Amino acid sequence: MEKIPMTAAGYTALEVELKHRTQVERPRIIQAISEARAHGDLSENAEYHAAKEQQSLNEGRVAELEDKLSRAEVIDVSKLSGNTVKFGATVTLLDEDTEEQKVYQIVGDSEADVKQGRVSISSPIARALIGKTIGDSVEVVAPGGARSFEITGVRFGA
Question: Where do the Transcription elongation factor GreA/GreB N-terminal domain residues begin and end (predicted)?
């Protein structure tokens, strides 16, 4: 069973979603199914079939969340330090073509959100950055083509 690296914030977010799905969504869906059942013939009851579909999707996500949480390896980013890029690092990059500065934090797959500057540990940019230090140049082969960046900063924690 492969461990899934994630930050404490990512773990908490999954716990919150799981709690919501089991304590709020599950009872709401069960109520919708019982109300739809009361309408009679289930073979042509669209409300019943929609509620059963919702239940299936919700239970599938609950199982997925429970799996991720059970395999989670929570890494306390605040206890990490150094100049080498590793999981949890917030990396400041300078695009060597456009001189544009970008800041990314390397996080677990389930926490990734590029719009908020969090990239997955398995993304091309994170794989290119891991093990590098400040001052290193990296070439990232991404779907949009190859890009060159210089690492100008590495920090851990908030």
Answer: 4-74
Q: Which two tokens stand for residue 155?
A: 């920090």
Structural domain harbouring 109: 77-155
One-letter amino acid for residue 7 of the chain: T
Tell me, what DSSP letter sits at residue 133? B
Give the domain CATH number at 9: 1.10.287.180
Which two structure tokens, joined as six digits, stand for 16? 């919150």
pLDDT at 158 over 60: no
Residues 83/133, Cβ–Cβ less than 8 Å? yes
CATH number, domain containing residue 149 = 3.10.50.30
Q: Binning pLDDT at 50, 70 and 90, where does residue 44 land?
A: confident
**DSSP annotation string for 29-98:** HHHHHHHHHTTS-STT-HHHHHHHHHHHHHHHHHHHHHHHHHHEEEE-GGG--SSB--TT-EEEEEETTT
Q: Which of 52, 75, 98 is the last residue of a domain?
A: 75
**Full-model pTM:** 0.77
